Amino acid sequence: MIYKTAKITIPEIIFGINSLNKVAESLNQVGGEKPLIVTDKGLIDAGWVEKLSTILKNAGFEHQIFSKITENPKDSEVNEGVKMYLGSECDSIIGIGGGSSMDAAKSIAILSTNHGTIKDYEGANKIRNPLPPMIMIPTTAGTGADVSQFAIITDPKRKIKMSLIDRSLVPDVSIIDPILLTTKDSKLTAYTGLDSLGHAIESFLSVSSNDFTNTMALNAIKIIFKYLRRSVASKTDLEAKEKMALATLQAGISFSNAGLGLLHAMAHQVGGLLDAPHGEIDAILLPHVLRFNLISSVEKLAHIASLIDKKTNHLSKRDRAERAIYLVSELCKDLEINKGLGHLGVNEDNIAKMSKNALLDFCILTNPRDADEKDIEKIFHEAL
Predict the structure, then answer these.
(1) What does the pLDDT read at residue 267?
(2) Over the stretch 194-209, which tens digit does the pLDDT of each residue have?
(3) Taking the C-alpha atoms of 357, 361, 363 and 366 in order, what is their torsion angle to the nearest 10 degrees?
(4) pLDDT in the model for residue 4
(5) How many Cβ atoms are within 10 Å of 343's Cβ, its own excluded?
(6) What own/partner pairs with CB < 8 Å and gap ≥ 24 does 184-187 have?
(7) Helix, strand or coil for residue 65?
(8) Is the pLDDT of residue 1 over 50?
(9) Which of 28, 34, 72, 304 pairs with 221 at a CA distance of 20 to 30 A?
């Protein structure tokens, strides 16, 4: 038997209905006095930023709001947020929103105490100075940015997404309130839920997985297959929202500590090129990447099939592994994500460059099967 030593890093987690009300208490606990709230226009329109602001005001906390974050946050947006943070003499950061707002919040934190540009921190373990206290409040069930050591920022000049990875990017506190999921439309619910599924499956297949992360990942997979369809079908199904929030939390803890793989290395290139929804890209690519990884992951994929469909237990491991890929494809079809990358705007001319860039993405390092440029090009072609 091979024993692995696992080092697990997670924030303090406050989970449950109306847990948003704990934000002032958490801010006081981490030593913040004047936070910068990092968010987007959608969250302002939904009323959640106003509610957060009211909670902070009632507790006596002065704060600033930076809401210029777009779907795939750009380096320029981070720079503008840093100017507000420093110019307003803030001392802490609260990110509220989906992965875009939280990734931007983390990146603003980096540059508020470290020198240079956000590009200087692309890759792993490049942050030297301590970051300000960070509280993250997710409003989607998908990204896991509130518990992870990852931040993803778009570089429009190079048309790529930069992966920033460092344990200091794990927030101090994650406040997960399932009620915040009830204002998201069905498409965003589907995209983010499938992103979470990608996190769970990739971290389970990762070469850096361990018993702890596997437990988190497998439970997330089981919950997603049981509740994602319900969550997409109804904004008001609070049980489904709460379960999906739990699945996202567990998938986030898993991938933060075990890593991801080829799926995200490739998806980052499409998102950097087209500014398209990350979860939709994940959903399109996931079955194709799983098919590529099959020869290295038969036993684990077979385990996934048995977990979500007990009727497969009589099958051989190979057939169960094939069944797992089929079940993922069927889930995507049920959520009406059944088109290829071509409908997003990817064409044959983009594939060579995206494949080269995917090889440079840090996520590929923990993929269970080695991939070269030709392998990645083939997968992109299949996913068109």
Answers:
(1) 96
(2) 999 999 999 999 999 9
(3) 90
(4) 67
(5) 12
(6) 184/139, 184/140, 184/235, 185/235, 186/232, 186/233, 186/235
(7) strand
(8) no
(9) 72
Give the E-state strand segments of the chain in sequence order: 12-15, 35-38, 64-66, 92-97, 123-124, 134-138, 150-155, 160-165, 173-176
Question: 335 Cβ partners below 8 Å, 6+ apart?
Answer: 190, 193, 194, 228, 229, 232, 283
Specify the pLDDT at position 7. 80
Query: What is the three-class DSSP state of 138?
Result: strand
Q: Which residue has the tokens 């913040």?
A: 32
Contact (Cβ atoms closer than 8 angstroms) between residue 286 and residue 198 = yes
Question: What pTM was computed for the model?
Answer: 0.94
Burial label, 64 (beta-carbon count in 10 A; 0-12, 13-18, 19+) = middle
Q: Work out the mean pLDDT of the chain and round it to a whole number.
A: 95
Burial class, 76, CB count within 10 angstroms (exposed 0-12 / middle 13-18 / buried 19+): middle
As a whole number, mean pLDDT of residues 228-233 equals 98
Query: Does residue 252 register a pLDDT over 50?
Result: yes
Helices 75-87 and 99-113: crossing angle in degrees, nearest 10, is 60
User: What sign results for the dihedral spanned by CA atoms 203, 209, 214, 216?
Assistant: negative
